[in-house]
Every structure is written in structure tokens, then in C-alpha cells.
Amino acid sequence: MTQHHTGVQDPDAPPTMTATHDDDPARRRPARSRWPMRVVVAASLLGGLAAAAAGLVMTAGGTEPVVDGSVLLGFAAGWALLLVLSVRFNDHPQKWAAVPAAVMGAGGAALLVFTPSSAAMHALGWVWPPVLLGLLAWITIQIRRQLPRRGGRWMLYPIVAVTGLAAVGGGHHTVTQSIDQASVESMPGQLIDVGDHGLYLSCTGSGEPTVILEPGLGETSAAWGWIAPTVATHTRVCMYDRAGRGRSEPSPTPQDGDQIATDLHTLLERADISGPLVMVGHSLGGLYVLDYTARYPQQVAGMVLLDATPPTAFSSLPDYPAFYDMFTTATCLFPGLARLGATELINASSHPGLPAE
Questions:
Q1: pLDDT (tens digit per residue) in 75-116
Q2: DSSP label at 342?
Q3: Single pTM value for the model
Q4: Are 213 and 227 contacting, i.e. CB atoms less than 8 angstroms apart?
């Protein structure tokens, strides 16, 4: 019988011996190692997820553009790995993967370099969902055309589907936010410029001293929904959102206790609130209250610490540093998740039982 050779090797076949031009067996050299395509796809996915997770950990506590940009760069690395590994270790190079790698890499780099404001991020909300959906449709076509049937398609389709849901959620969030903007602007309180960002402040009641409510780690002014109205029956009470929380804008500079105290002092000064003040701090807010009082003692008539974090928490409580790092990492995801349409879920889980308004 005569054997017919097509010239195409099985991508999952083991390494073979490649002859030199003179077919001398003594001068033959082994061909380069080849991986099954499904291994290439799996390695690319795991590499991209690992890169995104590493970026998230490195930017924990950062602003939304920084966190989102780092995650995008991680996803871009995953697509770049698919390109490089398939070219280097398989006979079915997936050169189309350069497109999502370039698009996501450029988007992530732009967010890190330019760090757009909240208004710019909202404007981008009209652009990125349709662009991403178009990119995903093109990626799906390339997967069907160029990736072997047994080459790990089933691993890429869920990634495309989840990313598509994120794009749909992001578009829905942008539309609903625009529709609800009028009602948001009619709510009590105001956004006051403190230099390079605005902080939300709401004051009710009258009299002295003025009570300043400082929420805990990851919390917003909404956490005082039951307390502020009660205090307002006796004296003036003000609640606010720290930078990047609630209705306040993110700060382009890192936020530590000293910076938070400086921002609050500027906020109260520009709102014509000079004192005497009673500073109320809940949980980690207790440390911020102590910091503020130490920096501006002439303004503070007293302090109330509600289940406050002790000043020695990081040195005297063995589990606290790990909890703080974990919680900071988790909450820095909230703005990005909200922009993907998860706002209602986050609000419902964050403040159960608070009054609807």
C-alpha cells in the first residue's frame, strides 16, 4: 500500500527528529518542544488571571482608574501569552490574540498614566461597553476559525461570556446613572471642592457644638442613616464621605490618616464650620478622629469613639493587619464592580435595614 502524507503534523504529537539539509543521521537535531493547544490556552488563562490578581494586590486601596488599569493590563498579559506560547510551542499560532492584548493593554496603560476623573470615567462609560462587545464578537469569530476544535475552545468561551455580561452591565449602569442624576442632585448635601477633588457633606439640625460623624473602614455617610436624624433634634450634625467613598470624588493622592484629617479640615473650613466640634468616630473612623483632634485641638470640644479601632491595633492585635489588608483589597474593587452594574447588589449588602432614603 502507498502512504499519502499531507505534510501537517498532529499538534499533540510528541517531539520528532528534524533532519538537516543533507539528511545525515549523525547531524540530526531534535525539533523544538511542542505543547498541546489546550495546554497553551490553559497556561495563558492562568497567567492572565495571575497577572490581574497581582496588579490588584499591588494597587490595593488605590483609586478606581489605577485598580481598573492594573486589572486590564493583567488581562492583556493573558492574551499576549496566548500569542507567544502558540507561536513558540504549537503549530497553530494564534496571531489574532495580539489584537485583544493591544486593545486591553492600551486601555489599562491609559488609565494608569492619565488617571481620569470621576466625570471622565462616567463619559468613558458610554464608549467602552460597545467597543468591548464589538471586540468580543470578533474574538469569538477568531476562536471558531483558528483554534482547533480540541484546542481548548471551551476554556475561552466562558471568559468571553463573562466579559460580555460585564460590558452589558457597564452600559446599563451608565444609562441608569444618567437617568437618576436629577434625583441624586436633589438629595440633601453638597459636593465641596477641597483642592484636587470634591467631598460630599450633609449637615442638618442647628445649635452648638457641631457633631462630625466619621464612618468606619469602607463605610460611607449612609451608615449614619439612623443616627444623624436623632442627633439633629438636639444640635447641628454633619456627615461626610471620605475621598473615593459614597458621593465623594476620588483623590489623586494616597489617603492616610494625616491626609484624611487635612481633607476634612479643608472641607469644614470651606463649609464655614469652625467649631466647637464633637468628633464621632466608628471603628477605623476612631483613629481618624484621634488624628484630627491631635492636629486641630483648638477646634475640638470632645470626642465619641463608637467601637473604635484602638491606636495599637496593628501591633497589639495579631490578626488585625491581615484583616485590614484583606478588607482594603476587597473594598477597592467596589467602584469598579459598581461601574459594571453591580451597584444595587453592593448597596443592598452594605447597608441592610437602613431607611430607603
A1: 999 999 999 999 999 999 999 999 999 999 999 999 999 988
A2: I
A3: 0.69
A4: yes
